[in-house]
Predict the structure.
Amino acid sequence: MDIDDRLTVIALLYTEIADEIPAIALNNVPNQKTANLVAKIQNLLQAEQIFAHERL
């Protein structure tokens, strides 16, 4: 798969599990940059989350 297809799959998986990731889990992310990125993606509308790799 090319990079766009892989990112699409990751985005679709994320949208499936995003509601099941408790907010407290962000506190356990070892890298602050990663935690910030996850928080930014979670603040996007669900339809926009799929294309987050293009926006962020």
The mean pLDDT is 78. The helical segments are 3-17, 32-43, 46-49, 52-55.
